[in-house]
Amino acid sequence: MRRIRSKDRDAITRIRSLTVFSGCSDEELGVARSLMTPVQVPAGTTLITEHEPGRECFIIQSGITIVAQGRVPVAHLGPGEVVGEMSLIDGAARTATVCAETDLELFVQTEREFAALLERSPSVARNIMKMMSRRMRAAA
Predict the structure, then answer these.
(1) How far, in Å, CA of 38 to CA of 11, rounded?
(2) What pLDDT digit, counting tens, does each position of 28-72 carry?
(3) Helical segments of 44-102, H only
(4) How many structural domains compose the chain?
(5) Is the pLDDT at 113 greater than 60, yes or no?
(6) How far apart are CA 1 and CA 95, in angstroms?
(7) Is 1 within the bounds of a domain?
(8) What count of other Cβ atoms lies within 10 Å of the Cβ of residue 107?
(9) pTM above 0.85, yes or no
């Protein structure tokens, strides 16, 4: 078993509270942390543009995004939510535009990193399926 360094332990403690990582083991959290890049994004930044191809997804650590289809706001998403995952799962174009309503702290994952996370962390895969199901029910 690999020892977790203090810096990694701090990062794991931060992500443990996020919904998408609910129920994850320490090993799964370590894998997740190794497959994400933390970034800060100022309010007003467009993260995702509707109809564009998807190349990455974002896990919101802090802050609020606004999701719009066309020019119509359809949702606000906050800490623990994942945005951009649908395009990485099915390869189709983005279904909405997502903008930073407030300053954001995010974790970014490339398509390859996201696929590796789903493969190596069953808890994250289940949580993302639950999140997507909840969003579909809300939209119906």
Answers:
(1) 10
(2) 999 999 999 999 999 999 999 999 999 999 999 999 999 999 999
(3) 85-90
(4) 1
(5) yes
(6) 41
(7) no
(8) 23
(9) yes
